[in-house]
Design a protein that fits this description.
Elements: E1 3-6, E2 12-16, E3 25-31, E4 43-50, H1 64-67, E5 75-80, H2 96-111, E6 115-116, E7 138-142, E8 150-154, E9 167-171, E10 182-183, H3 190-198, H4 211-231, E11 235-236, H5 248-267, H6 270-300, H7 307-315, H8 331-342, H9 366-373
Parallel strand pairs: 1-9, 4-5
Antiparallel strand pairs: 2-3, 3-4, 5-7, 6-7, 8-9, 10-11
Helix pairs in contact: 5-6
Length: 391
């Protein structure tokens, strides 16, 4: 992998031509008496690998364990790895063989906290002959200690005549300046601001302004209005304490996940749905891995002062309890108490003056009707039935 790495320091270095007994891996250890990059680390390592296919497509000449070791100082892993994956080239269709060959490397990188520096879809190899397509097989990964120091990954240099393009990776000390405060527009006090905005007066404009004068007038009016809104809007300064387990690698995965989801909704093809599903699985798996790793490091560095915080994280938030009610212990008793409170019993209604038919009553028999009619006078009414109105 032809890569130029810009480092603004001069240090001692050691070349390890046969790293961990593998011929296709070269390691460069850089050490200094002074802290590197303005950090607390005195060592920095670069691993350059050339991984080739073997008889088994699932096995390469350089294993993932060799490429992604767990070190306590900055580590940059780069090289021609000859693996194709959806994370590095999300718009390309890959076969099952290519996915199964590259998945162990990206899973090991995610478990170890490594972030892919390549912008998704940026080709690194353009075949000079043959029918092969451009691909992304020159990859660069940074471990969590190096990731804050990576400023850019660029492929803007002219071609060197090879089918692989040169890549520039810039490393520099992280900025010590805090991010500027951001307005919380959702918490703006509009009740107080509404009459003020209605009374806002736009500065008077010239009768026949020139384009620069018109632009200056527009900018001045907008700046005054924005300043007026900010006076009644609280601000918040971004802090890393909000999500201490979040990493820039997760930001890249989240952006690609939403991008693939939008593409799947727009095109609605089986390939795009598969890409969206793979991006979603990788994104949430990386989140789970980052949370697990942060929790492990938090427990290792726990102090007596942070013991209760660790216990609260371990047990989680308590479930909302059910209120205790006097005289109600069983669920049925609680149910009756709630029903009596929400639907209090009403006084019985007075019986209606007129009897209405009851549909649920059994039909009258001939004997019942005859017994009722036997008590009536045969001269109650000049009709054949001789039934009184009261009956």
């Amino acid at each position: 992998m032809a890569a130029y790495i810009h480092m603004s320091f001069l240090s001692n270095y050691t070349v390890l031509p046969r790293f961990r007994g593998v011929d296709d891996v070269l390691a460069l250890d850089i050490s200094s008496n002074e802290p590197l990059f303005g950090t607390a680390f005195h060592s920095f390592r670069i691993i350059n690998a050339y991984s080739t296919n073997t008889a088994d497509h699932r096995v390469h000449s350089v294993s993932p364990e060799v490429l992604f070791p767990d070190l306590g100082f900055p580590l940059l892993v780069l090289g021609d790895l000859n693996i194709d994956n959806l994370l590095s080239d999300p718009l390309r269709h890959f076969s099952h063989r290519e996915i199964s060959s590259s998945t162990p490397y990206f899973e090991k990188a995610a478990e170890s906290g490594f972030a892919l520096l390549n912008p998704p879809g940026e080709f690194t190899r353009f075949p000079l002959v043959g029918k092969a397509r451009p691909s992304v097989i020159d990859l660069a990964f940074a471990n969590p200690h190096l990731l804050p120091l990576v400023k850019s990954w660029e492929a803007s240099l002219p071609s060197t005549g090879s089918d692989h393009i040169p890549i520039t990776i810039t490393l520099a000390a992280p900025s010590l300046n805090q991010e500027p405060p951001r307005p919380r527009w959702a918490d703006t006090n509009w009740e107080t601001l509404d009459p003020i905005v209605k009374g806002f007066k736009v500065p008077a404009a010239l009768s026949c302004p020139t384009p620069p004068q018109l632009d200056e007038w527009m900018s001045e009016s907008l700046n005054r209005l924005v300043a007026l809104l900010k006076e009644h809007t609280p601000v918040s300064r971004p802090s890393h304490h909000s999500k201490p387990w979040w990493t820039p690698h997760l930001s890249v995965l989240r952006r690609e996940y939403h991008k693939a989801t939008r593409a799947a909704r727009k095109h609605d093809t089986s390939h795009m749905r598969e890409v969206a599903g793979t991006s979603k699985a990788g994104y949430f798996k990386a989140i789970k891995t980052a949370k697990t790793k942060y929790w492990s490091s938090f427990l290792l560095a726990a102090t007596p002062q942070s013991l209760w915080t660790a216990k609260r994280f371990a047990y989680g938030r308590a479930q909302p309890g059910f209120p205790s009610l006097p005289g109600a212990e069983t669920p049925l008793q609680m149910n009756n108490v709630f029903l009596d409170h929400i639907f209090p019993p009403k006084e019985p209604f007075s019986p209606p003056s007129r009897l209405r038919p009851n549909k649920s009553a059994p039909p009258l028999t001939t004997d019942e009707i005859g017994a009722a009619l036997s008590k009536c006078s045969p001269t109650s009414a000049p009709v054949p039935d001789r039934i009184l109105y009261s009956t």
